[in-house]
Amino acid sequence: MNKILFSDFDGTLFFKEGFHQEDIEAIKTFQSKGNKFALCTGRPLGGVNALMKGKIIPDYYVLCTGGLVLDKNYQVIYAQEIPFELVKEVCQKYENETIIGPHCLDEKYLYFKYVQNDAPSYIKQFDSIDEFKNRKIYSFSLIESIRAKEITKEINENYPSLHAFQNVNAIDVVKRECSKGNGILEITKLISDETAGIGDSYNDLEMFKVVNQSFTFKTSPKDIQQQTRYTVSSVKMAIDILNKE
After folding, report:
1. Which helix (H) or strand (E) holds 173?
2. What separation in angstroms does the CA of 173 have from each of 83, 178, 199?
């Protein structure tokens, strides 16, 4: 049976120093054998496209922590919008202690309230959240927080229609019924491949619950390692294990 590997992006496939070439080559070989590769990330499309260009062509995209699912041609398979006024309320509540960023279906850009001068050109700064009033928002992020765990808990307790996921020092927020796991399930309605998932943080736990084989890293928190079948050192190592099964 062919397999599909769902991979987290930051800290799993993409690092401060960029991609690891051995991972890229392993993914391409994996796909060439009839298997599939899918991104499963809190980022929107504009947050991965520029980085992935010329390296990997995913077969599917689970974006915005499951709030938006696309095929390889960017056609929508599943989408759940968050009402703008709700996005605005939460962002304004935490904008003094985090950097806020709403996520839409934009192929080119990733948006945040504050952007460093040396930031990549695909990251754009906006002045007011009201600029997104007439756009479809599938998730939003609150990044660079020293209270990520606490804010995640507060949002989940105070906003019953939202689901917040901690991602290291960031918080990814979607509609309550959305998660990486639910996004994967939408894709499995269309295919019969054996599923596998790899990730490094708490927002990946829902992914691990729905795949046949789960992978995390030796550097991941111990409680995450305890909820996966395999502990590996790279995406390549995970693919090597899948190829042997």
Report:
1. strand 170-175
2. 12, 9, 18
Residue 214 β-bridge partners: 197
Per-residue pLDDT of the chain (245 residues; tens, 9 = 90+): 899 999 999 999 999 999 999 999 999 999 999 999 999 999 999 999 999 999 999 999 999 999 999 999 999 999 999 999 999 999 999 999 999 999 999 999 999 999 999 999 999 999 999 999 999 999 999 999 999 999 999 999 999 999 999 988 999 999 999 999 999 999 999 999 999 999 998 889 999 999 999 999 999 999 999 999 999 999 999 999 999 98
pTM, two decimals, is: 0.94
235 closest CA partner among 217, 222, 212, 210: 217
- 216 closest CA partner among 20, 58, 11, 4: 11
How many CB atoms lie under 10 A from the CB of residue 203? 26
CA 91 to chain centre: 19
Q: Distance between CA atoms of 198 and 232, rounded to whole angstroms?
A: 9
Q: Is 195 exposed, middle or buried (0-12, 13-18, 19+ CB in 10 A)?
A: buried
CA distance 144 to 141: 10
Tokens of residue 176, six digits: 């309550």
Alpha carbons 204 and 133: distance in angstroms, whole number: 29
| Closest listed residue to residue 2, CA positions, set 192, 190, 189, 187 | 192
CB neighbour class for 87 (10 Å; exposed up to 12, middle 13-18, buried from 19):
buried
